[in-house]
Amino acid sequence: MVAPAQELVAPSTVAPPSRPYQTSQQLNQLLQQGRKLVDAGYFSDAIALYQQAATLEPKNPRIFAGIGYLEARQRNFPAAAVAYRQAVALAPKDAHFQYALGYSLANLGDNAGAAAAYLRAVQLNHKDINAYLGLGVVMFRQGKYNDALMACQRVVAITPNNARAYELRGMIFGQQGHFKEAIAALSRARDLYRRQGYMQGVQRAEVVLQQLHQ
Length: 214
Known about the structure:
- The chain is mainly α.
- The chain is built from eleven helices and no strands.
- Helix 7 runs antiparallel to helix 8, helix 7 (129-141) packs parallel to helix 9 (163-176) and helix 8 (145-158) packs antiparallel against helix 9 (163-176).
- The protein is elongated and about 65 Å long.
């Protein structure tokens, strides 16, 4: 999950010797004001404050991740990707930041870049279901069906009743012409979605099933 901007934590109020107390106090004020704006739904105004905060604390990856989160919430994925790249550069071993970068790049259609970020995410966190699903999607888009299936299998191994994994598996099998396997996977996805009360997923699965039965 992308780290919410609300979870941004202000740096210690004890400033290092090279930073004046006034700067630290100003940073805390910017972060507090930014959180209030986020809570009120004023994302653009919050981003402006976090960008000011980033100039005061340019090595704080959580500030850049907060900017990326808010940009992604507004579907401004180019700006989100830039912010998450800065966060990843500062904290390359943070699986959440890697996933968020992959998500932003996937929404920009940069499937190869997204796959690389998702792969780093799952290497850092072997149980990151969302990263495996994202990896499966971008591999599917690139026609790398075996890799996409492997990602789905990993999700099912962690969460056996994951409807999205079965739905994606069905789409992959259908694209490969393995219609019997596709129908079985999509039927499973539909039933799981129905059990979860997620009717949009049920409808998606049924549309594809109808196409496969024709």
